[in-house]
Amino acid sequence: MSKVVFLLVPRVHLLDLAGPAQAFGTAADIGRGYELSYVAEREDVPTAQGLTVRASTDLPALTAGDLVVVPGWRSPMADGTASLSPATLSWLAGHHAAGATVVSVCAGADALGMAGLLDGRRCTTHHDVQDELARRYPRAVVIRDVLYVVDGRIATSAGIASGIDLALHLIAVRDGPDVAARVAREMVVYARRNGDELQANAMLRHRNHLSDLSHRAQDHIEARFAGPLPLADLAQDCGVSERTLTRRFADATGMTPLRYQQVLRVERAEHLIGHGATVEAAAHAVGFADARMLRRLRSRG
After folding, report:
1. Pick from 113, 139, 171: which residue ends a domain?
2. 259 lies in which domain range?
3. 169-184 tens-digit pLDDT
C-alpha cells in the first residue's frame, strides 16, 4: 500500500487536484495499492473555482514508497498569498530526503522551490508562470513548454490537464504501462503522453491501447529513436521474437516498429524546423544520415 498525500494551498485549482486524484483513485479501484489523503495548513481550503474543500491539518508520517503531490493554485507567485509555513516546508523536504518522491502540478512547483527541492534540478510549470519560477529559483533548470519533467524523485507538470499525464506516467513506472493504459481508458483520456513532447503527437495518437508489450517497445523506441535501433535488439529488450514483436506491435498501433521510429523522427524534425533549424540540421539531429530521407518522409504526410 502506497499513500498519495495531496498538499493543498488556498485557491487550489480543482483540476490540478482532481485530475491526479482521479488517476490514483482509479488505480486503487482496480486493485492497485494506493491510499489517498489530503492535508493543508487549515482545515477548510477555498479553491480557485469557489468550492471549499476540507483537509486534515495533521501532516502524516510517510515512507519512501509514498507520494506527496502539490497541486497548483491561482496567482501563486505574484501576490505572495501562498507562502507555506516552515513546518510544512520542512515536512515536504524531509519526505524527499527520506528517499521518497515529491510531485507538483502547475504552479505547485513554487512549493517545491520554497522547500529547496528544485535546486540543481530540471523542472517545469504552467507557461504563464515559468519565467517567474526561473527568476525566483535561479538554481533550478526550468524546461519550458513541456507537459512534465521527471528529475530523479522530483516530478513537475505544466498544469491543469497535464497533471493527469504525469500521474499516468507515475502509475506506469510503479505498476506497469498496462495498468496506466487501463486507468486512462477508465478515465476516458489518452494514455501515456510523454512529458517532453507537444500535445498532438505520435506518442499521443498511438498510445491508446492496452498492449503491455507494445507500450514497452514504444518506451524503448521513444528513448532512442534518434539512433540505430535494430529490430533484433528491440525484440531482445522486450523479451520476444522479432516476428512476435512486429505482429503484436502492428496489431496495437497500426504500424511496424520501424515506421513508428520514423514517425517520431519526422515529428521531432518538424518541431526543430518550426523553431528555426534548417532541414539539414534537423535531419541530422533526429538520426537521418542526410536530409533526403527526411524530405521523402515529410512529403508522404
Report:
1. 171
2. 211-301
3. 999 999 988 899 899 9
Please report, for the chain, how many H helices and E strands are present, in that order.
13, 10
C-alpha cell at 195: 512529458
Beta-sheet pairing, 101-105 with 34-40: unpaired
147 and 243 in a single domain? The answer is no
C-alpha cell read off for 124: 517545469
pLDDT tens, position by position, 18-57: 999 999 999 999 999 999 999 999 999 999 999 999 999 9
Place of cell 491508446: 208
Compute the distance between CA of residue 160 and CA of residue 63 in angstroms, rounded to an integer: 28
Q: How far is CA 47 from CA 15, 17, 80, 141, in A?
A: 10, 10, 16, 29
Question: Does 162 lie in the same domain as 229?
Answer: no
DSSP bridge partners of 54: 44
CA distance 207 to 177: 10
Helix H or strand E encompassing 68: strand 67-70
In this structure, are residues 166 and 22 in contact, taking their beta carbons and an 8 Å threshold? no
> Could you give the CA distance from residue 288 to residue 230 in angstroms, rounded to a whole number?
15
Contact between residue 148 and residue 162 where contact means Cβ atoms under 8 Å apart: yes
Q: What is the CATH number of the domain that holds 94?
A: 3.40.50.880
Same domain, 130 and 233: no
Output the nine-digit C-alpha cell for 186.
Answer: 477508465
Do 11 and 133 lie in a common domain?
Answer: yes
Q: Which three cell numbers stand for residue 157?
A: 507538470
Rg (CA), the chain: 21
